[in-house]
Structures are given as C-alpha cells and as structure tokens.
Amino acid sequence: MHLAFDSLVHQVSAALDEDLGQPPRDLTAELIPEQTQATARLICREPALVAGVAWAQETFRQVNPEVELDWRVKDGDWVDSNALWCEIRGNARAILTAERTAMNFLQTLSGTATTTLAWRAALGTRDTLLLDTRKTLPGMRLAQKYACTVGGATNHRLGLFDAFLIKENHIAAHGSIAGAVAAAQGMNLSVPIEVEVETLEELREALAAGADWIMLDNFDLERTRQAVALNAGRARLEGSGNVQLNELEALADTGVDAISVGALTKHLRACDLSLRVEMNR
Q: pLDDT tens, 147-175?
C-alpha cells in the first residue's frame, strides 16, 4: 500500500502537537544547555519485525532537521533482541523532544507488523489472503494498514469510501440483500460490492444478487465448507468473525479466498524500544 507523504507528515505533526502543546514547548528539555550535542542509540529489547522508520525519521525532521539519523535497519527487517536500530546525533534538546513521539510510531507500527507476521506465518504456503480491517487506532488507519502489509497481510478496504460492505443494518434499510445490492449497483461505481451474510440462505441471496465478495460472518468450519461448495467460485468468500490464531489453518483449508482478522490492528502489543542518550562533553 502506498501511503501518501502528506498523510504521514500530518500524522507526525498531530502527534507532536499532542506532546508539545501550543505554543510548542518541552519544559524538561530546556533544563539542558541549548547548544549541547548528544549521541543516542535506539534498540529493541525483543525480536521484532521493523515498521515505521519513515514516521520516526519525519518526527526528528519536524523537531530539528539538522539531527542526523543513521539507520541500521529498514522496514521489513526481522531484528533480534538488543540489536542497534538507529544511531542519532545532534542537538540534545531536539533528540529528547522527538524521542517519545518517534518511538511511539515505531513501537506501534513494528508491533502491528510483528503481530501480522505471526498470523501470516500460521497460514504457511497457502494462497489464502490474510486481510486487515478498519479496527485501527483513531488517526493511525493508513499507518497501521501499511504496517500490516509489511507483516504480510493484504489491505481490505481502507475506509468507507473505496468499497461497499453491505451489513445487516444496510440490508434492513432496503428490506433485502437483493435490494441493497441493486442500490449499490445502481450507483455505477467501479468498486467491489461485498455482502456480509450470517446463514447459507443469505449466501444464496447474495450470490443471486451478484455480489462480488461475500463475508461469512461467524460461520463454523462445517458451514464454511458448505458455503464454499455452494458458492462454486462465483464470488470471493471471506471468513470472518472472532477468528483465533490456532484456528487459522483449519479455516483456510475450507477453501475460502480470504480471512479477515481484526486482531492484527486492535490486539497488537507495542514493541519494547529503548533510546539511550549520551551528552557530548
């Protein structure tokens, strides 16, 4: 997924605003003489899949573009415990001011990527797509979805604007699956039309209506196998609903095309980063 640079810049700017207030100020950093220089070493105390380097780089740039970052890793690298990720040199105040925001981005996005990698690994060599969802941290949608791709997932729709996902409330508003799908088709947009179904009968209705994707909501394995047989390749089938890591292989082996997992972005555990700063004497 391509993340627009403007979006990244905005995310970093908003995060720094949270930390520095208006007008921006770091009271504790002001305890250090203004011209003091420092060197810092960024490590992670545990194994991790790296993601979010651009966000950290942009954080330091916005605080002080003269700070130098020497990255020893890049997004997509698997790194062992206590390996050096980055050496940072420059104004001590700037390094300390940017530290937490930069690490927040790195720990969250690397945590997302690391979690996603574990789920992708559970699928082995299967062709089944692992999909992320919209269950992301507010303001971090594109960043977390980017991190999911680093971990091996495929982005589902980015938001409410780039695909139809017709669920029970939309169906109720139109009175039927056929009515909701027909309304979507009538808009003449070149985007996928997906329908969430809870029964095999609803699956039949969605297929008859011409849905492109069908989400099987909380189907057990037997009903999922029946759904795959009934579908016979007419639409793309997505398994979804409280999927557990230890169930992933069995669900993939039913023959669904994709499995969506909210846990990739909402059950992540941030990586344990550490930044050690030494003042230059």
A: 999 999 999 999 999 999 999 999 999 99
Q: Active site residue: 100, 134, 204, 223, which one? A: 100
Give pLDDT, residue 5: 66
Residue of 26, 196, 202, 205 marked active site? 196
Q: What angle do CA 37, 40, 42 make, to 5 degrees?
A: 160
Q: Which of 135, 204, 223, 234 is catalytic?
A: 135
Structure tokens at 83: 């390996």
The span from the CA of 265 to the CA of 71, in Å, is 26
Active site residue: 41, 72, 89, 167, which one?
167
Say how far apart CA 92 and CA 115 lie, in whole Å: 33
- The set of residues, in sequence order, having a beta carbon less than 8 Å from that of 258 and lying 6+ positions away, is 128, 129, 130, 131, 154, 236, 237, 238, 239
Residue 250 burial (CB count, 10 A):
10
Q: 129 phi and psi, to 5 degrees? A: -75, 140
Q: Report pTM.
A: 0.93
Whether 196 is catalytic is yes
Both tokens assigned to 220: 């057990």
Tokens of 254: 């039913």
257 catalytic residue (yes or no)? no
Rounded to whole angstroms, the Cα distance separating 59 from 11 reads 10
pLDDT digits (tens, 9 = 90+) for 235-253: 999 999 989 999 999 999 9
Structural tokens at position 48: 């991790």
100 included as an active-site residue: yes
Q: Distance (Å, rounded) from C-alpha 26 to C-alpha 92? A: 12
222: exposed, middle or buried (Cβ count in 10 Å: 0-12, 13-18, 19+):
exposed
Examine the residue annotation and report whether 167 is marked as an active-site residue of this protein.
yes
Name the catalytic one among 77, 87, 212, 217.
217
